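hey
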């Protein structure tokens, strides 16, 4: 999924200038792992290399029917299942849905709106990923510091 950040709720349905954020989420035993990427465009040439680099081949990918994803199965070898949101939120035949990534948009958007600007956007997205992987922040940071080695 992808979105553009805006601070004005009245812009619903209106194209807004600003950075596009592309997201990938995976359910885990502890909850989820989420990665977000700042992209200039939402086309296949931009999004497919990100998926190729961050998602193992053969993985089942659930998405909406955005045209940029149409080659995931045929060209890239993923098990790509889609849901048509104009008909269902959950595909009645496959169970495919995008509810995890959609719910994460709310959390991410709430955090990013408080940041006021895009100069540190990539750092904030990296922090969001780190928090999705490390549920207990303080022990995780101490552990990372302990294992950090300088050259």
């Amino acid at each position: 999924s992808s979105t553009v950040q805006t601070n004005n709720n009245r812009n619903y349905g209106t194209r807004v200038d600003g950075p596009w954020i592309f997201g990938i989420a995976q359910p885990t035993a502890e909850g989820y792992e989420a990665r977000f990427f700042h992209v200039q465009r939402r086309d296949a040439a931009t999004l497919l290399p990100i998926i190729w680099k961050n998602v193992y081949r053969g993985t089942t990918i659930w998405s909406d029917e955005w045209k940029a994803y149409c080659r995931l199965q045929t060209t890239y070898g993923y098990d790509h299942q889609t849901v048509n949101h104009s008909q269902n939120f959950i595909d009645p035949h496959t169970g495919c849905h995008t509810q995890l990534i959609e719910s994460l948009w709310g959390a991410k958007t709430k955090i990013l709106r408080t940041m006021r600007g895009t100069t540190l956007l990539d750092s904030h997205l990296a922090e969001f990923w780190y928090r999705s992987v490390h549920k207990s922040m303080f022990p995780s940071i101490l552990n990372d510091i302990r294992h950090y080695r300088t050259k």
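Confidence is low (pLDDT under 50) at residues 1-12. DSSP finds four helices and five strands in the chain.
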